[in-house]
């Protein structure tokens, strides 16, 4: 009996030992693997590793979200036209992850791609603070595009001493998207022209909303959110949070207060569906479910609506110009070339080609990103959209783009906007009075950027 | 009951027993290996800890003394960030929300876990199936579970509101209420972590000797009394461990509130935890110095909370021991 026990124990001990050594081996393999992976990734992210032994120029392109180049097959087309160039493309889904990561690469002078996308909300920061991290495109092929842009688009990417740090890919001219079935049920005009005729101003828009509210089915609001309405109204202004001299004026700018008050009125009168844009999953569902009848839509949102409302929404949505026929702008991106790029010339040629009218028109067809190149306006102005009852979206957005103001952008625009939109949300969802909400935003912003 | 040493003398005793003066190179190496091997084996952890634990900690502190905006050079400002933080109502709001959501999720989570573990400790059919399924929520990604719960707690047509309507209560706007949003988040956290804690409790329960239960049963204790007087005291170290781990987890709560409603944590910051607040400062507003300050204050808070936890446990131990005497 004791002998049996001993053998049993020895056996146990040996298996324990082999198990331990297996575990050790596994740990070592993991460690080595991890080291390999990191070294690989540093090797590949040292993307500016110029032309290789095959004599070809390797260009790296790093973007965020959907620029539409890959989707429209433009990279393949460029490589076919230029056999000596190969393009390596990558895209990060969220801009809020993309940008901080790019900042660390720029700061270390290592790892940035030859061509990088820049969101319009960042361009003021780039122009104000990062003049020495980006290539001046003025003397390069890409710089030729600047003359083809609406002045406000290129002005935003030009430094005080005249350096052009980026060129535009698209812009976000604004229109009003609406559910004609819901408007029809409430006895409002469903025809785009007739509807536009009834909306001479944002106040008219609210009045129409009150009329809608009286007759509409329960669970359907006039518009999605006070924050979205605010964004639309403010996008038609020249000076918003900063004045032309670069001073922060959001608190004294009557246009900001007016837009805030108009949106807060819509909220307190129950004209909004109280859906936090891009944050509330119910907002997405609302496009198909009829939670709201109208929404201010930049051109890129046309694709968003199609995606969220799906096939069932086809033929229900329509589109017309903003109240008063105003032209606004919301969003739109840029392409820049980091200083660290070793292929500046080749990269600039690619940027020039990508921002040519023909290419921008192709991108518009695929994803709805509206061209920033005015020469492309003609190419897309005839476009219609079956999903939106055959609406002339090309003409609507071209008109909006041409009448959009030259917006003064500032480095803290996003902070101010976030705070004001958040305050408006508190008005509609938590019953905070508009005056208190404005006060809260003031206090918050004084704390944050004051 | 004999130990193996009665049949086989311990192996290391042999070489060590030989007199010291004339050692062969081989045995010297052998001794060196014996002395150094433990250090070599633990070295990878400590090297990695230095690189990924201590260095970031110290560097974060250094950054917190700077005005450091994304994309610009750090600029020394001393304690400015700390005065900014401690005079900022949003910080206190985030602190409060972290604590309330922490209590709302940790307490039910641990109570449920201990109850479940007790049930799983009984002999029953398909016991292993139940035990394994406990860990499933933990294995699910935060993103997936939060998105599902965001639907459940939807204002229009959410499952939670439908259930409430069955008992005649009106539809709640879960996301935008204060307490309701916190409860919704606490439910997500509880759902994810209850099984994890239950398995830890189960392991703890199985280390309690069956003799104790037998003795208690002989004394006429029913199952509830056994749980109270045998299981709970035996589990005390395990409970302390789970309380500490859950407290740390609750203090760092980030993914669930972020996915539930964005980085602001609601229109009135109803569910902006310290984690969200830090992320907002760093990656939305680009103020890395301020974010680093929040990170450091959170770290200190965790240290204090852990000390309080263990201190309380020790105090209670002494108390009960005193009572026994």
Can you describe this structure?
The complex is a heterodimer of chains A (450) and B (325). Chain A has 450 residues and is of the alpha/beta class. Chain A has two domains: 19-171 and 331-380, Periplasmic binding protein-like II (D-Maltodextrin-Binding Protein, domain 2, 3-Layer(aba) Sandwich), CATH 3.40.190; 174-330 and 407-445, Periplasmic binding protein-like II (D-Maltodextrin-Binding Protein, domain 2). Chain A is 50% helix and 11% strand. Chain A has helices spanning 2-45, 74-81, 95-108, 120-129, 151-155, 180-185, 192-198, 202-215, 226-234, 254-268, 281-289, 299-309, 344-354, 357-367, 374-380, 393-403, 413-430, 434-449; strands spanning 57-64, 85-92, 115-119, 167-168, 170-171, 174-179, 221-223, 292-298, 317-320, 333-336, 370-371. In chain A, the strands form three sheets. Chain A has a five-stranded mixed β-sheet with strand order 2-1-3-10-4, with helices on both faces. The model of chain A is unreliable at 1-20 and 29-51 (pLDDT under 50). Chain B has 325 residues and is mainly α. Chain B has a single domain (94-323), classed as MetI-like (MetI-like fold), CATH 1.10.3720.10. Chain B contains 14 helices and two strands; from the N terminus they run H-H-E-E-H-H-H-H-H-H-H-H-H-H-H-H. Chain B is flat and about 60 Å long. The model of chain B is unreliable at 1-15 (pLDDT under 50). The interface between A and B is large, with 40 and 32 residues. Chain B: Residues 1-20 are annotated as: Disordered.
